[in-house]
């Protein structure tokens, strides 16, 4: 959050923006809770609320590529899900329009489980996002332990892991300006944002996580998910959809394993030099 290498006596330079993502259908309770947590953890650091999009906004039609969604998605995203993606995009653009070097983006149903780790991550964001890393996630949805294959490293005195299979969950994450640019280079979207990060190679994204989930989501405590009702209506058992899902999963898994093996070889060779 603050540049600790500044000359003695000079004014602190804030390097990391703290952005809370919300929208007009989010309850006042969620935003009040988000603001209160941000104040408790970050003190007087500036926190900006990004008022994003909802399903009926024209922005959804502008960025939503329905043809690619039909081709590349097992289940067509709902307008509410694309609105959530558009809200993250607004957060990335907010970073690029600012003088900050990087940002911590927080969905408004976040809960900070480990304030000290989160403060450290924000204070050391420049180190965590060095060496070409574009995103450092502070929340991952859990996976079966047998699929916990990853490459580990340390940066800024903190442990980082690159999972073989990038996990869903963007409740809280650090992102660099370059990461924001790469995301926004895709002018039209066709997956939900949590799925898009699993196809990291398409945009050349380098995605890592801080293990242990120092941030988690508490949507159920705050009135439930804003997307769940639309998702329920969009779901349904369908043989062709299931077969398509299998093919898409095989496609993603092949590229995931290929890029992970390639990265692991590179990582080991770097460690040995």
Topology:
Layout: E1 16-22, H1 28-42, E2 47-51, H2 58-63, H3 66-72, H4 79-96, E3 102-107, E4 110-112, H5 115-123, H6 125-128, E5 135-137, E6 150-155, E7 158-163, E8 172-176, H7 177-184, H8 193-196, E9 207-209, E10 215-217, H9 228-234, H10 239-272
Parallel strand pairs: 1-2, 1-3, 5-9
Antiparallel strand pairs: 3-8, 4-10, 5-8, 6-7
Helix pairs in contact: 4-7
Summarize this, please?
By secondary structure, the protein is α/β, with parallel strands linked by helices. It has helices spanning 28-42, 58-63, 66-72, 79-96, 115-123, 125-128, 177-184, 193-196, 228-234, 239-272; strands at 16-22, 47-51, 102-107, 110-112, 135-137, 150-155, 158-163, 172-176, 207-209, 215-217.
Descriptive report:
The chain is of the alpha/beta class and 273 residues long. 41% of the residues lie in helices and 17% in strands. It has helices at residues 28-42, 58-63, 66-72, 79-96, 115-123, 125-128, 177-184, 193-196, 228-234, 239-272; strands at residues 16-22, 47-51, 102-107, 110-112, 135-137, 150-155, 158-163, 172-176, 207-209, 215-217. Helix 4 (79-96) packs across helix 7 (177-184). Residues 2-12 and 269-273 have low confidence and may be disordered.
């Amino acid at each position: 959050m603050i540049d600790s290498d500044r000359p003695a006596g000079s004014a602190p330079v804030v390097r990391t923006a703290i952005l809370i993502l919300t929208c007009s259908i989010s309850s006042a309770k969620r935003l009040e809770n988000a603001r209160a947590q941000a104040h408790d953890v970050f003190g007087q650091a500036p926190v900006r609320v990004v008022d994003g999009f909802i399903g009926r906004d024209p922005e959804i039609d502008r960025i939503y590529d329905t043809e690619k969604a039909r081709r590349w998605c097992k289940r067509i995203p709902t307008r509410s899900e694309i609105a959530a993606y558009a809200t993250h995009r607004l957060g990335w653009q907010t970073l690029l329009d600012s003088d900050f070097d990087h940002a911590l983006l927080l969905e408004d149903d976040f809960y900070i489980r480990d304030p000290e780790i989160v403060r450290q991550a924000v204070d050391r964001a420049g180190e965590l996002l060095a060496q070409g890393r574009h995103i450092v996630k502070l929340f991952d949805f859990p996976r079966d332990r047998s699929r916990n294959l990853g490459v580990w490293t340390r940066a800024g005195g903190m442990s980082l892991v690159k999972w073989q299979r990038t996990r869903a969950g963007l409740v809280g994450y650090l992102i660099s300006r370059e990461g924001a640019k790469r995301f926004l280079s895709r002018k039209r979207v066709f997956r939900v944002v949590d799925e898009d990060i699993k196809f990291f190679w398409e945009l050349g994204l380098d995605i890592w996580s801080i293990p242990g989930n120092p941030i988690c989501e508490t949507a159920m405590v705050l009135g439930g998910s804003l997307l769940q009702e639309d998702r329920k209506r969009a779901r349904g058992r369908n043989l062709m959809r299931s077969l398509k899902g299998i093919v898409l999963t095989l496609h993603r898994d092949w590229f995931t394993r290929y890029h992970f093996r390639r990265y692991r070889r590179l990582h080991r060779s770097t460690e040995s030099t």
